[in-house]
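Listing S7. Sequence submitted for prediction.
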Amino acid sequence: MVSQISQTTKLNNGVEMPWFGLGVYKAQAGSEVEQAIHNALEIGYRHVDTAALYENEESVGEAIRTSGLKREDVFVTTKLWNTEQGYESTLKAFETSRQKLKFDYIDLYLIHWPGKDKFVDTWKAFEKLYRDGYIRAIGVSNFKVHHLQTLLEQAEIRPTVNQVEYHPRLTQEPLKAFCESQQIQLEAWAPLMRGKVLDDPVILDIAAKYGKTPSQIVLRWDLDTKVITIPKSVHRNRIEENAGIFDFQLDETDLKRIGQLNKDERTGPDPDALVF
């Protein structure tokens, strides 16, 4: 059972990654994202997830530097945007992100979307950056099984993480099973389905049973299904509420009830439709 906010899972390369973190998608650069991160770190979060697309990497780095914590105490993820895929362009884009964050290294670097046919060359650049010591772990985001199979056929280093849309209405069971078989850790974005799942009668019923909020039930379900989760918020009360999930565990019946809510319903694009 994941019983502490800073508790980690060991990735397939031995790096320890916290099960729980703060997402900063759509958080405004400057005081908004910096205050959100300061609040989260005060509450006990030790994992922050950003991306080049979010245009707040500089503020993320500043928030961590001014938090009073050591750099090595906070696990930081950023991601390569689609327009930068390809070997040389990836190397340049990574350095841009690293300079914006003002870090010597990044804990986890992800390919944001697979696209059509560049991700293998992109991955070779990831492998170089990993071998050169600039990244502690490399992974992917929004990869389906067939993307992973193509990558694994040609990769020298296996991805550590696949960050995908994952919530009770998109449980991605075949993908989850494949990732588990390959020792690739699944991580959830949009774990609360951007709020759309929080008024589901099943979630409300389970929340009443445990004396928890609907969002806490869904985030606990992530952990109890062995999926890393990174809910996003800039509001301290919500950041704190989201973290109130470490003093209980869902029983098998409730895990099954939530899993049965799956409708293969996405809030974001289907990776196969986002071709570039």
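Caption to Listing S7: primary sequence and predicted structure tokens for the chain studied. Strands lie at 8-10, 16-18, 22-23, 47-49, 75-80, 106-111, 135-141, 161-165, 185-189, 228-229. The chain has one domain: 8-195+228-247.
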